[in-house]
Write a structure and sequence with these properties.
Elements (H helix, E strand, L loop, with lengths): L1 E10 L2 E11 L4 E5 L6 H8 L7 E6 L2 E2 L4 H6 L1 E4 L11 H11 L5 H13 L15 H13 L5 E5 L7 H16 L3 E5 L3 H7 L2 E6 L2 E6 L1 H8 L5 H8 L7
Parallel strand pairs: 3-8, 3-9, 6-7, 7-8
Antiparallel strand pairs: 1-2, 1-4, 4-5, 9-10
Length: about 240
Amino acid sequence: MIILKNLTKIYRGIKVVDNLNLQIPQGTIFGFIGPNGAGKTTTIRMMTGVLRPTEGSISIDGLDIAKEPSQAKRIIGFIPDRPFLYEKLSGTEFLRFKAGLYGMRGTGLDEDIFDLLNLFELSNWADELIESYSHGMKQRLIIASALIHKPKVIIVDEPMVALDPRGAKLVKELFKERARKGTTVFMSTHTLALAQELCQQIAIVDKGRIVASGTSKDLEEQAGVMGDLERIFLAITGGLASA
């Protein structure tokens, strides 16, 4: 479960994130959508412990990210929109490096690395330097690295960046499978069709505040329009007149 309580971040007197309150049940794929500059990435950075909130709290599976940062980060798999890779390592070496950050050792680790490389269709490139990977291969590797420690919560910012249709389908099925097994997925994306397809619950954020949240049906009622998520999003954020 993820709980954001009165979460606020102020930069130079401006509330970039303004009193967010969310409670996301275990095993939910949750969509977090909004216009550019709405505060989505800042929220994610606070959830992953990169930024400290000005006010409020964040609980990840019962762990307070400010009071118990090490323990909380151990159960989070973070997939950023602009990942950093050590390109002079091979894919296998990078996964082993990431596993080491979580204290993972032993023969079982080699099997986990093999399984992830195989899952993301990187086995043939396992011992090649990352600098030789395509952009899409790098994205698949960064997703694999976020799963190496079997996190209870996956936090992802624009998951389908650089992925071809085959890679995107793989990741979508992976998220669904992990959610069925109890993993919570918090996903920020501008791809509204993706959010509508995957997410059981969605929050729309604008100017740092949640302006609508709930299931697709809840959002239709709050927007006062029927139709796909794009129409609902535009109505709520001022891009489309209600009808």
